[in-house]
Design goal:
The chain has a domain of 95 residues. The relative contact order is 0.05. 59% of the residues lie in helices and 6% in strands. The chain is mainly α. A hairpin with a 2-residue loop joins strand 1 and strand 2.
Length: 169
């Protein structure tokens, strides 16, 4: 459909896709008919018909490919739709048998969910001794306590003592 052809027509080469060549030869045939040249008009129409047939054949091939792809796509979708059901049935049957066998062969297991679990603390020395490089995240953080801000007591005391307005010097 999109392939470019070179057509050697009676009036020189015509280049383009089959649809473009059909249009060009049809236009040449109209021009020849308007010029009262019936032989040239018929010649151009024959060239146009040739490319019309090529175009129709290419269209049929494309349609056949498209239908084949659609059929394959539908088959794949049906296969996918059936596959999970089969896998689910196989998976659901298989664990039941395994669980039954395990229950028969298993020893009683103590329930440890309510017991207190010990905290695991790895000392920094153990990490350093292991040959790893000490990183700032591993080092203990030493912080100094903040110093309290001094209270602005002096200004408040001066203002409280003197009720008189201050003179400008």
């Amino acid at each position: 459909m999109n392939r470019v052809f070179d057509s050697s027509g009676p009036e020189g080469k015509v280049r383009g896709t089959p649809q473009q060549i059909i249009e060009k030869y049809s236009q040449m045939a109209r021009d020849a008919h308007l010029g009262n040249d019936r032989v040239a008009a018929e010649n151009f129409l024959q060239h146009s018909e040739h490319y019309t047939r090529m175009h129709a054949e290419a269209q049929r091939e494309i349609d056949a490919r498209r239908e084949q792809q659609e059929r394959e796509h539908q088959e794949r979708q049906q296969a996918r739709a059936n596959q999970p059901r089969q896998e689910h049935q196989q998976n659901s049957d298989q664990p039941r048998v395994d669980q039954n066998q395990q229950q028969q062969n298993a020893e009683p297991v103590a329930d440890l969910s309510n017991t207190e679990q010990p905290e695991l603390i790895v000392p920094v020395a153990a990490v350093v001794d292991s040959g790893l490089v000490e990183t700032p995240e591993q080092a203990p953080v030493k912080r100094r306590p903040r110093k309290p801000k001094p209270a602005p007591v002096a200004k408040a005391a001066d203002e409280a003592v003197s009720d008189e307005p201050k003179a400008a010097e």
